[in-house]
Design a protein that fits this description.
This protein has a two-stranded parallel sheet. The chain is built from six helices and two strands. α2 runs parallel beside α6. It is mainly α and about 150 residues long. It has one domain. β1, α2 and β2 form a beta-alpha-beta unit.
Length: about 150
């Protein structure tokens, strides 16, 4: 309903299964979490991802920059008019009384009690599902060539 042109949740979970079946590390990004609308679904989402083989996870809270805010408000009017003010109020609460905060680090997770609540819900959900944090990247398999390559 929110992102009608994206792959279905079932297709995403199947992709994780296929990646893991071939030994490729796989994780998920639970996004966007919409406070007051989808935040309660986070534990079930993480559980389904873990069952599919996800090894790590991250999340972002919905961002409403520039022209996205009025589109989102219209979407709420159309699909969840009874929850519109609650959702927008919570977004404003974790965005410094605005619908968007582009400040580095805060723009993805917000701040305040609702942001802390979502972070805690996510952390506990990951722990219960057996999902860890992102793996550390390594470069031991990469080699630097000794000569400059040419374009032609």
């Amino acid at each position: 309903m929110l992102e009608p042109r994206t792959s279905s949740p079932e297709a995403c979970l199947d992709t994780i299964r296929q990646l893991r079946a071939t030994g490729i590390p796989a994780g998920v990004m639970v996004a966007p979490i919409i406070p007051g609308l989808t935040d309660h679904e986070v534990p079930k989402i993480l559980e389904a991802c873990a069952e599919a083989g996800a090894q790590f996870a991250g999340y972002t809270i919905v961002r409403l920059p520039w022209a996205v805010a009025p589109l989102f408000e219209h979407w709420l009017d159309e699909h969840f008019p009874d929850r519109k003010e609650k959702v927008l109020g919570r977004i404003r609460h974790l965005r410094g009384n605005r619908l968007n905060n582009s400040q580095w680090h805060r723009r993805m997770t917000g701040e305040g009690i609702f942001a802390e609540q979502i972070a805690s819900l996510f952390e506990v959900g990951c722990r219960r599902a057996g999902i860890g944090t992102r793996p550390k990247l390594w470069t031991t398999a990469f080699r630097r060539t000794r000569e400059q390559l040419t374009l032609f």
